[in-house]
Amino acid sequence: MQLQCSVLGKDIEITDTSTPVISPYWRLKRNGEWILLCRYAAEQCDYSLVSPLVGATLSLMDGRLAFRHLCLIVQYANGFEDLEAAEEFVTKVILATNKECDAVVEMTPELEPFVIKMDPLRFASNTSVSQEQKRPAAPLSLNLMFSNECETNCSYCQAQRRYLPENTLLSAKRWKEIISEAKSLGIEQVTLSGGDPLYRKEALVLIGELIAKKMLFQLPTKCCITEEIADRLVEVGMTKPINHYLREIQLTMDGPDEEPSHKSAGKSSHFSKSVQSIRNLQARGFNLRIKALATSVNASQIYQWIKQLVEMGVTQITVAAYAKAYHKHNGNLSLSSQDKISIAQQCQKARTDFPGISLSTNGIGPAPGAEQNTESASICQRGPIEISVDIGEESSGKISYWKSRVQCAGGRTSMTITPDGKVVLCDTVPQDEPFFVGDVSTQSLLEVWNSESLLNFAYPPREKFKGSACYDCDKLEECQSKLGHCFRDSYFNLGTIFGPAAHCPMAQRQA
Question: Spelled out in words, what is the top-level CATH class assigned to the domain 141-377?
Fold first, then answer.
């Protein structure tokens, strides 16, 4: 369910009678010596780094204190000279937080069941010690690959899908131990990838374990959801809410009939099986989203396809552009600029004709003349952002773009566990020795996270870049520490892990 949240200082003004509360869409967490404000949503991994004083103040915002009463406590706890000074400080905290995160909202009865009560003492830490910490002390999320296998053979699959004999896979028992350890580390969100998460025979048991540990995730699949599988998903809890969310099943389709589906999915009858899956999921009340893959083959049929899905009762649709895959690619399926314009226009018409649906696009762009961009938000946002309150030539386009690029999550906020327990930092890189940074079949999550192997891969020393533009770059340390170099793009574009990404302005300048 979508909660109505009025952001203080944006949607409504801050007054003495305002009752600030941390939005249910955000989590204030202690991670080592760091205090983090993390987005709480499936497939999201962005966070902001919060100063200890701001963190302790935010922890008091649990919907029980009016603004004036909150300021009285802050005045006493932090030794402000008078109430006016405390009010000025708390106002700055709210405005600074909401400038980046929209995380402090007005308390309402609707939000009450989802408010988390916090102990401010948990967020009081030594600022100098917290500054010594360079990354999260434990991962904020995990990417779990239960299987590399899949029912289909899609021509656009981003995964390498390394073959693994069944006797080499992590046991269900070990997966459960990993999930329990993740929970103990404060991890609340995981991503499922692969292969298809439902392909493994113990998949439903493992999904049930994630649900039992109150993990938030989206279940992406192209497997045929039979009545039996749908019933089992109900049994393990996929139709039960977690806080204000109902976990989503994302079913990917490759066309509005058998022909385009066959060309993309590499399997006949995929369309009819997808229709069967939709009917079985709809009949049991699942939170279903259809990811409709837009290709040159079906570009002219998008509106009709959406109409077809609406008539089946589907209310959530994402139209996603075919994108080049590193391991497999079929250039004949790529969209032209004109295809994208046509698709955007068809989607705009569909929103007008079917106002009850949630329709987003990914990789398409807005229709010409559209009032707003309806592109889906990126999974990983800019980050980390620092939120603090002061109580006392690099503006060129290319460099600005580079500095605002998406943060590499690998080794900074997350890591990927492959089906046999080998750990990599990105689920699209080859599952091969140069990319392995640990093995949870013999190591704990924290042992891998803090291992020399992982740290040297995520934050490689300058010597590893010898012979590349990065080696002589005076911005290397700054680049690596905040957003990271994309080893995946370096590998696929240059054939080396330790080199600049394609869009690095320093590399382009030296080329």
Answer: alpha beta
